[in-house]
Amino acid sequence: MPNQVTAPPMRQAQHALRLDLVRSEKASVHLITFVVAAVSTILITRAYLALTGYPKIGGDSGLHVAHVLPGGLLMLASIVLSFSYVGRGPRPIAALLGGVGFGLFIDEVGKFVTADNNYFFEPAAAIIYVVFAALVVGAHAWRRHRPLTDEEKVANAAHVLVDGLAGRLPDRRRQEMLATLESMGDVRGARQLHELLLSVEPRTPALPQHLERLWQRVPEGFDRIAESRFAAPVLGALFALQALGALIVAVGLWRTGTSYAVIMSGVLAGTATSLVFVVLGLRRGRAGDRRSALDWFQRAALTSLLLTQVFLFTASQFAATAGLVVDLMLLGLVATSRARVRR
């Protein structure tokens, strides 16, 4: 009897707390745009300030307009753009503006975590890195463990139809969505959306679609490598480059003295762990278990991303940025290869 009384209110509470969010199939593409724009903005900003002697906007008047302020305005523009227009058109531009704005914002994190507003606070680089690493890895794990449902795919098709009805749907995107709907069979709404998309007249892609297509070529390139006979050599070369770069930095730190002992230990520990995972992956690959081998390779790349590069960022931002690029390439290639194995 008590369960009969309390069950309906509990179900009502669960329903009230549920957000009913529908995931976008282009989320990873927009995330790449956001991260690349943010990281590029940080590097360009730091390089510009170093070359110009760290000027202050406002001069000697006592005022200083920190670049966190235009960063906030760009993020505001991204948010306003996202909820002011329907369809997919504004998404690539919003991701670009938001990435640049967030890069300007997070670049000054040292001022917000120190009592003396120290822009040159050394651990700030590691904080910046951890934020981006957590964003990329969290999104990757979320999509991997929860692929889009059929209902979400239909909802994405309906979103694409909005662009078609407004006369702003490129033919390539239209053909992609038609093929997706055809493969879904009798899922509710798929057939009706297919008929509506057939009646839509495609248009020449606008600038946002060109930007989206540019980033779409990244996973397409990974897919071409994964299906070629060069997949294993490319993986091996990237892992070797990753380990060699980390060891070179570790040796450089060792020569500077004992002040970097903790950082050097972290770099060596992360590199050693990644190499162990690579060896285990090679053993599984030779045994014929390709899926398990790729799982170990993915663990090796994630270990480098979340451990080795964090310590590297504290010592050398530019070396860690190069390592970050290599790790992202490894994760992309491994993820594509795992998807092919599953298919």
From TrEMBL:
Provide the protein name.
Uncharacterized protein
Q: Note the superkingdom of the native organism.
A: Bacteria
Bilayer-crossing residues are: 27-48, 68-86, 93-113, 119-142, 230-254, 260-282
Keyword annotations of the record = Membrane, Transmembrane, Transmembrane helix
Species whose genome carries this gene = Kineosporia babensis
